Amino acid sequence: MSAVPLEFRGGLAYHWATLVATVRMHLEVDTLYPTNVLQQALFPVLSYVTWRVTYTVSGRSTVGGVGPSAFLLVGMVGLLTWRLTVLGSGYSIEDERSEGTIGALFLTPVSRAVIILGHGLASFAGMLPTYAVIVIVGFLIGARLDVTDPLAVALALLSIVVASLSIGFALAGLFILSRRGNLVANSLQSPIYFLAGFIVPRTELPEWLRPLSNILPAGPAVDALRASTLSGATLGGISHTLGLAFGTSALWALIGYLSLRRVEYAAKRSGQLELY
Amino acid sequence: MLQVNKRGAEAKGSDAAIVADRLRRVYTKRGRLFSRPGVTVAVDEVSFSVPRGTIFGLLGPNGAGKTTTIKMLSTLLIPTSGTATVGGYDVVRDERLVRRQLGVVLGGERGLYGYLTGWDNLVYFGNLYGMTSGCIRRRAVEVLELVGLEERAHERVEGYSRGMKQRLHLAKALLHDPPILVLDEPTIGLDPAAAVDLRAAIAALVPERTVLLTTHDMHEADQLCREIAIIDRGKIVAQGSPAELKRRAEGERRIVVATREPLSHRDGAVEARLRDLSIARSFDRATTPDGGTELTVRCGDAASALDVTLAVLREQGVSVSEVRVIEPTLEDVFLSVSGRSLG
Question: How many CB pairs under 8 A join A and B?
Answer without folding.
Answer: 122
